[in-house]
């Protein structure tokens, strides 16, 4: 007890105050038990459709005869053996992301072509989602002699009553100018255009470019060098609320045999589209990859896919890690780097943030979601790799899964500047 508390005489309080106090205490106790005891989650009737609760306590101890995972790049962590796609719930916070009537459904597929790798961009005017095929990797149908492809789907082609049964809506390929080589990331729309980031191919330089979403899909390259030096293979891009463009550079062009050996570190840059000024805002990564900001622009997330090594092979002792940074209010440089999350499956690649500050990343078994404290609250479990995803307005998450695209209808909404 603190000083002074002993002087209170409860029996002197009016009866009504006592009754109200008891009632409030009882309510608080019920709310506390509800929040802390996951027992109610084990009752499947209280879970939303297509959801499975996996109590972290249920696998906290696996014992001497446990079947432990050897390879984080296999089909992932699915202790209930549930058939994908489904929502894997680890924490009650994930129910806020899902809402009461979520669904997750395959909406496009092509078994022989990884047409939906990264660069998801939602255009709210047309209700289109744009994306790029895998550049230089498995089923990408692209290499040092062949460019990858940018395509789009029309979400109006998705029927309104999705009930988890796979459909296959048409993908339209865009005919882009030759200045766009090996697109790996995208965001926007920015000033009415798609903002694409391209890895380059052979001697053709990596670049950032505006692309007209409408035919003839003409492009304007905004940046293709750092003071006369080519980037290694540009990877992912976001627009900060300040209007400045931030992007990552890493080594996958070389590791996938379509770019020369890297000549600069893997790092994060800031570009001012109005003045042309370009500078480094963060360095010391193994392989800097996905990038995202919270809606207020004060926190930046950078994924490091170090464990995924292209022709060098995967190495599970290297990073599969998302770092958080404070964004300096004046210089917008990234400060106070700290660990935000380490992925249990594959590597975290593209990153998005919702209005509640939950962080979504494409990983080895689907899309993982951490709350703003960095607790893994759930997964959009696919049993295969997702490299990125984008909100298509409120309550719709479009998930890239290489040879497939999934649509999740949920409760969450995108933070303003993360599309
Ligand atoms: C592990 O398996 C062995 C061999 O089947 C068995 O003797 C032992 O009791 C098991 N241990 C536990 C903790 O279940
Ligand atoms: C899959 O993609 C390949 C390469 O673009 C194309 O030739 C084929 O028609 C596609 N298959 C389907 C079923 O869309
Ligand atoms: C495309 O061409 C039109 C007409 O010349 C021009 O106004 C527009 O800025 C161009 N868009 C891009 C992204 O280059
Ligand atoms: C994996 O990475 C670690 C740390 O960089 C390194 O020491 C080790 O040699 C690597 N293993 C292989 C098989 O490349």
TrEMBL record:
The keyword Transmembrane applies. Keywords: Membrane, Transmembrane, Transmembrane helix. The keyword Transmembrane applies. Pfam families: SGL (PF08450). InterPro entries: 6-blade_b-propeller_TolB-like (IPR011042), Oryzine_lactonohydrolase (IPR052988), SGL (IPR013658). The chain crosses the membrane at residues 12-32. Residues 209-395 form the SMP-30/Gluconolactonase/LRE-like region domain. SUPFAM superfamilies: Calcium-dependent phosphotriesterase. This is Calcium-dependent phosphotriesterase.
